[in-house]
Every structure is written in C-alpha cells, then in structure tokens.
Amino acid sequence: MHDLSALPEPKPPLMSRTPSSETRTTSGGIHARFLVEHSGFTLDVDLDLPDRGVTAIFGQSGSGKTTLLRCLAGLVTPVSGRLSIGADVWLDTANRLCLPTHCRPLGYVFQEASLFPHLTVEGNLRFGLKRVARSEQRVVFDQAAQLLGIEHLLRRMPSGLSGGERQRVAIARALLTSPRLLLLDEPLASLDRQRKEEILPYLARLHDELDIPVIYVSHAPEEVARLADYLVLLDNGRTVASGLISDMLARLDLAVARADDASVVMPGVVIGYESTYELLTLALPGTPVTMRVVHSSMRLGDTIRVVVKARDVSLTPQAPALGSILNVLPATVVGIAEAHAPSHVMVRLDVEGTPLLSRITRFSSDRLGLAVGMRVWAQVKAVSLLT
C-alpha cells in the first residue's frame, strides 16, 4: 500500500473552514469522489454509500483501500474530489473547501490499537469522551464499555491486554467521540484466528445496536460476510463494483463469486424452533421458502445472517427422495460461469427471489444438461449462522 500522507495540497490551496449554508447538499447518504495521484499509483473512485449499517471496502493489498479511508478521514488531500455526509460537505476541491481531520466528526481505528500506554483503559476511553462537547454526545461511557465488553478491563494498563482486548478498547474510544462516521482499517489484521473470533461478535453488536455508519476495510471474505451490508470492490485504485452484499457475492461477473470459497449471505427470520432436535426454522426474505438449521433456541422474529458456501450446494433435476439433507430448495438456474478451477463451474440460482451459488464439477454440469432457465433442486449440505 502506498503511503500518500505526504501528498502536496492542490494549488491554489484549499481553505480549512467549517461548513456554511453554501457548502450543504440536499442529498442523503455518503457521497465520496476522490482522485489521488502519487508515485505511479492512482486512486479514482466515485461512490454513493448508505449512511446506515456497515460498508465493507474489499480488495487485495495495494488496491487502494487504506488510501480511500485516509481520504475520508482527511489524512490525504485528493487532487480533486468531493465528500458529503448527509447534508454536510467535508471536501469540495472545486470550491476550495477541505475540513481538516480534527474538524471531521469521525472515529478512526487502525490495524494497531495505538492506545496511550501511560493511561489505563478508563483513561484512554475518557480521552475520547473529552473530544466531543457534552451537548453532542450520542454515545455515553457505560454504553461504549458495555457494547465492547470491556467493563472488567477499566483499571488495566494497555500493556496487560491481549491484542483483541486492545482493539476493543480502541473501538470503544472511537465511539466515545460520538462520530458521524466510524472508519475501521483492517482492525483484525494483526490478530490470530482465536482473537478474531473473540472480537467479531462485538463488531456485530455495533452493527445491530448503533446508528452510526461504519466503513470497514478488509481483505478477509469471512469478515465481510459476517459484518457488511454493502460491499465495494476495489482493484488497482478503481471501483470494480458496489452494491448490497447479498447481490454482490452472487454476481458471476465478479471474481469473488467464482473463488473456491465463494458464498452467499442472506437474512433469515426465526419462525420456529423444535427443542427436541434443537432445530431452528428460518424464513427467507420475501419468499415462502424456509430453511432448517441445527442451533440453540432463539426468539421468534429474530433476524440472523445465513451463510451458504457454494461448494456445499449440490444440484439435482428431480425432487430427491427422503434423505438426511435438511434443506432441499426449489431453484431456477439463472447463470453459469467458469470457476477459478477449470474443472468446476459456478451456477447462480434463484430460490424464489433469493440468490444462491452452487460450485459443481464441469462433468456434473454437462451430465445434468444445465442451462439458464432450468428448474432444479438445490441440496444445501451445510449452513452457517452468524450470530
């Protein structure tokens, strides 16, 4: 990743000033248009992002993810660009407007927690609280500590915390600035698998319980599937595609849908529970189709994320006889594409309005005579719930 922090400001210099009536826009959401050129690398993006939920910026190393985040934070000044958060304009190079970082109401969490080593956990948190006037506080101390599960750590020093604990403290400190926007730059990248599993549920709680838009940079598909509502794919400084994650992960024109570990994410609503078998029944959105998953009891009406890997979906042209697979779903073939491995193909299915992927061998595809429009039965061998 190129370090563009030393990029010179455009000429004539932009004015660092607070927004006035002339710098407000009537459109909602987040609009970000940046052109950055430095040392042979160009970031050229024009994005309209939702102002709710988690937007994941996904791509390989060097694709421009961190540079995009630094533009949002004001740490990199684009050659040209515009950034608006709801009705407030933070950057407009055409009108020589650029709010400095300290004037942007945002929280930024880096790959390393960067806690103050001489302060306790509580001291670090209260430092974040001091950055915002009491009248503008939307997140209070106890709420942040509880959301991140760090109440028992308040008297500890950073040196005595695990990597996952340090990151949870860093996120809580960022929340206590009551940001309009929370930026997370691969916050799990330096953690081992156990620590990642420790912190992911807390990140999911932020998604569920706070009305603060989150921009989450990652190159880990499992993190994106678990957390994101909206997905932006970057490659070599350009936007490949963007959209709702449920649509993006099933698009056969994108590499992410043709990878060996390709999967789809869909919301499921709990409509039943059989305690004898510890079996949940989930309704898929907007369809009469249901799925059954072995899991502990959950409240009726709860919405959870369902993840199905393409390699766990087999196809048959006829309704199978009684078998051990819990979920056999009626589907229509809507697309067929080459997988990364030449011996396999990826099949996009429509399950009464819900997209699903199946990764099968090319031999099986030819033997079944798969074609767009064909009705099949999708046998889902494994389902993961992200709770």
UniProtKB/TrEMBL annotation:
Xref: NCBIfam families: modC_ABC
Source organism: Pararobbsia alpina
InterPro entries: AAA+_ATPase, ABC_transporter-like_ATP-bd, ABC_transporter-like_CS, Mo/tungstate-bd_C_term_dom, ModC_ABC_ATP-bd, Molybdenum_import_ModC, Mop_domain, P-loop_NTPase
Bias kind Low complexity: ranges: 16-27
UniProt keyword list: ATP-binding, Cell inner membrane, Cell membrane, Membrane, Molybdenum, Nucleotide-binding, Translocase, Transport
Domain Mop: 322-387
Disordered as annotated region, ranges: 1-27
GO cellular component: membrane
Record-linked Pfam families: ABC_tran, TOBE
GO molecular function, one term: ATP hydrolysis activity
Residue ranges of every copy of the ABC transporter domain listed in the record: 25-261
Protein name (record): Vitamin B12 import ATP-binding protein BtuD
